[in-house]
Specification:
There is one protein chain. The chain is of the alpha/beta class and about 350 residues long. The protein is built from 16 helices and twelve strands. Helix content is about 50%, strand content about 10%. The longest helix is centred in the N-terminal third of the chain and has 24 residues, at about 50-75. The chain is globular and about 65 Å long.
């Protein structure tokens, strides 16, 4: 998103406002972006603890703080992903006349988005059905992703030292390690590596177990199991090299998979308000993914889903369906909306934004 904005304005100045419970405290400064943090926390507590009482107080106290920050900065426009931190920021922006673009990545918007969407100048969404839920006109931009346009499967496989005709399975759980995925792989790993290369993003917590599993494999197949604690820039190559991807149904994961048109075995996280289950249903209904419930996902279920996708006709249909859902131009589309707000230009039409999001402009 920031990259797309800077392509439009070389002199762009970006500043970030976050809360006290998120990765932004380290990631944002590392990217060279100034960070201010509100008193509230990025994620609200819902269980019974002292924070369940303190969070509403922090929210109230963050209102004047947000107002002071925006009054001092006087930004041309504000972009927000609509989380808990967005509430005081959107209220402050509305009070000061700062135009705002609110973006929602899940099909089912969270409570904070439903409560504040009316304060935003424009709303961008990843799924067309989100606008119906919010009861207002939305621009369907998709979810901005890392740059993928120049990543091709052949080049990715060469960089990863994987044969051009080798079948490749990528397994990753998004931003966190997933014990469910580790256990499913452990059940059937010898069978999998007899047929394909398996790239497995384990997270730090799953690394030792992955090394033990790799060491127990027959030496002839050991190189076919590629565990990594984390993939940074190399993740684009892993995605492009894969024939099938196993993952959760977070907005960013689905956006990257569909931008590349890869068949998916999606195992939605069953909590957090059921957002991922709703997201996964879109891919399943379109024929782009095999959707498996979290509590039913194990080694045999994984093998069964792979057997379905290994059918050439089924795999080809899934690739087309996945590409049909992909919006590789999402970052450019959202940047165009935000630029129009900042420059006080008329907003583009919804059709123009949809076309840009599909990467066809």
């Amino acid at each position: 998103m920031v990259r797309s904005l800077r392509e439009r304005r070389a002199d762009l100045e970006v500043r970030w406002v976050g809360g006290h419970r998120g990765l932004e405290a380290t990631l944002v400064p590392e990217a060279g972006i100034p960070l201010r943090r509100l008193w509230l926390r990025s994620l609200r507590t819902v269980d019974r603890s002292v924070n369940a009482l303190l969070d509403p107080l922090r929210l109230v106290a963050s209102g004047p703080q947000a107002l002071a920050i925006l009054a001092a900065w006087r930004p041309a426009a504000m972009f927000t992903t609509g989380g808990y931190v967005a509430i005081p920021m959107l209220v402050a922006a509305r009070a000061l006349g700062v135009p705002t673009l609110l973006w929602e990545g899940n099909l089912m918007p969270g409570r904070s988005v439903r409560a504040t969407a009316g304060l935003a100048s424009a709303v961008a969404v990843s799924f067309a059905g989100t606008g119906e839920i919010l009861g207002r006109r939305c621009f369907v931009t998709g979810t901005p992703t890392r740059p993928l346009a120049d990543v091709d499967a052949a080049g990715a496989r060469e960089r990863l030292r994987i044969g051009a005709h080798e079948r490749v399975l990528l397994v990753f759980g998004g931003s966190q390690a997933v014990r469910r995925f580790d256990d499913a792989l452990a059940d059937v790993l010898p069978l999998l590596v007899a047929q394909r290369t398996v790239i497995h993003v384990t997270g730090a917590a799953g690394w030792e177990g992955a090394q033990r599993r790799r060491g127990a494999l027959p030496e002839a197949h050991r190189e076919r199991y590629r565990p990594y604690t984390f993939l940074g820039p190399e993740m684009a190559d892993a995605l492009a090299a894969a024939d099938v991807i196993v993952g959760r149904a977070g907005s960013s994961t689905l956006a990257e998979v569909t931008a590349l048109g890869r068949p998916m075995i999606v195992v939605p996280y069953a909590h957090a308000g059921g957002h991922q289950e709703q997201n996964a249903r879109v891919l399943g209904q379109a024929g782009a993914a095999v959707v498996l419930d979290d509590d039913a996902f194990d080694g045999p279920a994984l093998l069964g889903a792979l057997t379905e996708i290994d059918d050439p006709a089924r795999a080809a249909a899934m690739r087309l369906a996945s590409l049909g859902l992909g919006r590789p131009g999402a970052a450019a589309a959202a940047a165009e909306l935000l630029s129009a707000l900042a420059e006080h230009r008329p907003l583009p039409s919804a059709d123009a934004i949809a076309t840009m999001a599909k990467g066809t402009m």
